[in-house]
Amino acid sequence: MKTKPASSPGAPCPAFETWVHAHRASFAQRATLLLLLLFSLAAQAQQPAFHALAFWTSGGETDHSDFARQAISFYTEAAARDHFDFRATTDWKELNPETLAHIDVVLWLNDQPHTDAQRTAFENYMNHGGGWLGSHVSGYNDSSTKWHWFVEFFGGAVFNANNWPPLPAQLIVDVRNHPVTHRLPATFLAPSNEWYVWKPSARANANVKVLVSFDPANYPLGFKDRLLSGDMPVVWTNTKYRMLYVNMGHGDKIFTNETQNHIFEDGLLWLSDRKTP
Asked: Does domain 47-272 have CATH number 3.20.20.70?
C-alpha cells in the first residue's frame, strides 16, 4: 500500500494560496474604495459653501465708499475663514436674472439698483428665496421713494433723521439667541456711525424682528444734527424674506470693533443657510 507523500516544508499550500489571493483582491477593492472616498471628500472640501456677491459704488459720499472698501476686505478674509465664495462689483448691470441664478446672498454696501430692470430682477430674486444683506445708506428711502415694493420689503421703515457728526453709541441686543446675534453681549459700544431714525419704525411691522436697537441712554446725540428721542432699531429682518439690514456703515471705523463685526459675519452666514428660518 502506497502512502501519499507529505508536503515538503517549503512547498506552498494550495488552500493557503487561494485564501491569500481572495483576501488580496478584497484588500485592493477596499483600498480603491477608500481612495475614491478620500478624493470625493477632498473635492467637496474645495467647493465653496455658498456664493455671495457684493454691490457697491465708488461714487457718492466718501465715508460710504470708505466703509464699502473695508467691508470688501472684511468679507474677503471671512470667505477664506468660513469657506465661501465672495466677490464684489461696481457694475450694477450684474443685478440680473442670469447672474443671480448662481448667487446665494446679495450684499448692498453703499448703493441701490439704478434701473427698473435691476429692481425687477432683485424683486424676483428675493420673492423666490434669495438672500440680502443691506448696510446703512443702501436701505435709505424717504417719502418721495418711488420703489414701493422695497419699502414693504424693508419693513415699512422710512428715513426721518440722522445725527451729525458720526459718533459712537451704546446698542442693546434685543434677541441674543438668534444666529446673527448669538455671539453678542446684552449691550455694547458701537464705533462712530451716522445713525438713522425711521418713521414709522420697522418695529411697528408685525413681520419684522428687531435684533439690535439704539439705547435711549444715548440721547441727545449729535452736535450739528441732534437726535433727541424715539425708538431706533439698527439691525432687523423682515421675516417674510431672507433679508437682514444693518444700520452701521458710515466711515472707516465700522470694522474696528470685534463684537460688532460678529453681526456682519454671522449675518451673512445666517442668510446663506436656506434651512434656517
From this structure: no
Cell of 156: 415699512
DSSP string, 144-210: T---HHHHHHTTS--EEEE-BS-EEEEEEES-SSSTTTTT--SEEEEEEE-PEEESS-GGGSTTEEE
Per the DSSP assignment, residues forming a β-bridge with 170 are: 189
pTM of the full structure:
0.84
Question: Helical H runs in the chain?
Answer: 14-46, 62-82, 97-100, 116-127, 148-153, 258-272
The letter for the amino acid at 211 is: L
CA dist., res. 219 & res. 247, Å (int): 17
pLDDT per residue as tens digits for the range 204-260: 999 999 999 999 999 999 999 999 999 999 999 999 999 999 999 999 999 999 999
